[in-house]
Amino acid sequence: MPILPGPRLSPAVQLLHHPVAIGPFTARGNLFLAPVAGYSDAAYRAICRAEGADLCYTEMVSSEGLTRGHEKTNSLLERDASESEYAIQIFGAKPEVMAEAARALAPWKPALIDVNCGCPVPKIVKSGAGSALMLEPAKIGKIVEAMRRALDATGMASVPVTVKFRLGWDESSINYLEVAKIAEDGGAAALTLHARTRAQGYSGKADWHALTNLSASTRLPVFGSGDAFSSIEARRMLEETGVSGVMIARGAMGNPFVFSETLALLEGEVGQPPTRSRRIEVARRHLELSAHFIGERQACLEFRKHFCAYTKGEAGGASLRAEAVRATSIEEFGLLFRRWAEFA
After folding, report:
1. What is the pLDDT of residues 120-150, one digit of tens each?
2. Burial class (CB in 10 A: 0-12, 13-18, 19+), 222
3. Do residue 313 and residue 177 come from a single domain?
4. pLDDT band for position 6 (cuts 50, 70, 90)
5. Spatial separation of the C-alpha atoms in residues 88 and 108, rounded to whole Å
6. Which of 158, 227, 279, 283 is the most exposed place for a label (fewest CB within 10 A)?
């Protein structure tokens, strides 16, 4: 199923919405879909891309899985035909394995490879990866250096290495500026800061002052993550912090329209929320795309959480969600879409 490209940009939007040079690669704009485990698959990325996301990241991919050729790991890297470029995020704790994983990504032709230094999930942290790396800043530098050497030696010199990280492990160990400097010295081409500590997880308020500090302290592009739940907040982040781009995660769940709404807002327009028929149309297309990639039954199981997000705040949403958690076929979801359309 073809996906239309994102909206064309007027000159007015260029003030806050603009291309971003990330090493040798230039993203067409600075509104990004974040890597979100369990969400950022090919179908979801295609939907967000069509709604105006300038660059979409895969969910985080295991470096160990990549180097061992695990089928499940490879399935995370599938891309839609509309994705002229995409970013791949990988995680791991061993510089040599991360370097080998970077080399293994050659067949997928990524626009960039991002290093996850921020995931707070216990099983990732226990392996020494994700936000556990905030406790070992020097290792982050070694990982970036090893990946950079591996890419340069295997004909992938044009693929930038970037790093996504947090403020620190907890409030007593805020070290994001140190991590940023080490990553930059190691050869990173851009930095993304999720402005929370590992201890916070996804709770509390993101510290946007840290985004301002980081943007002022490095020559690299800095992308902000944390609390950009709406078009208004995405614009505020760009206006107030000096970041080069905004990475949207939870704000796009069930709401890929956040990208088109943000573009409209940056042009000085009052973004109108999507009509119910539009939400249904996009949700239906999302499910069909997912079935194309992973088969009908698995797509329907995966789509349950997306359906719940799409119908959040909708009239009759609670009863629809109660039925959606048992839906196992496109036909069953079709009945739910029709019921959704009929609610007053």
Report:
1. 999 999 999 999 999 999 999 999 999 999 9
2. buried
3. no
4. very low
5. 9
6. 158
Q: What is the per-residue pLDDT for 344? A: 57
87-91 β-sheet, strand order: 55-56, 31-33, 245-248, 222-225, 190-194, 161-166, 112-117, 87-91, 61-62
Q: Are residues 222 and 319 located together in one domain of the fold?
A: no
b/e code 276-303 from CB counts within 10 Å (16+ = b): eeebbebbbbbbbbbbbbbebeebbebb
CA gap 263, 278 in Å, rounded:
18
Residues 27, 29: Cα–Cα separation, whole Å: 5
> What are the phi and psi torsion angles at 79 (to 5°)?
-135, 150
Q: CA-CA distance, 42 to 58, in Å (whole number)?
A: 8
119 in catalytic set: yes
Mean pLDDT of 201-205: 95
Between 1 and 81, name the one with better pLDDT. Answer: 81
Q: What is the pLDDT of residue 266?
A: 84
Range of the domain at 99: 11-266
- Look up residue 344 and give its two tokens: 């007053």
Cα atoms found within 13 Å of the Cα of residue 128, Cβ hemisphere only: 13
pLDDT (average), residues 64-84: 89
**Active-site residue, selected from the candidate residues 48, 119, 300, 308:** 119
Angle (CA) 78-40-54 rounded to 5° is: 90
Same domain, 299 and 188: no
In the three-class reduction of DSSP (H, G, I as helix; E, B as strand; rest coil), residue 261 is classed as helix
Looking at the structure, tell me whether residues 126 and 156 fall in a common domain.
yes
d(CA 159, CA 165): 20
Is residue 191 assigned to a domain? yes
Total residues belonging to the chain: 344
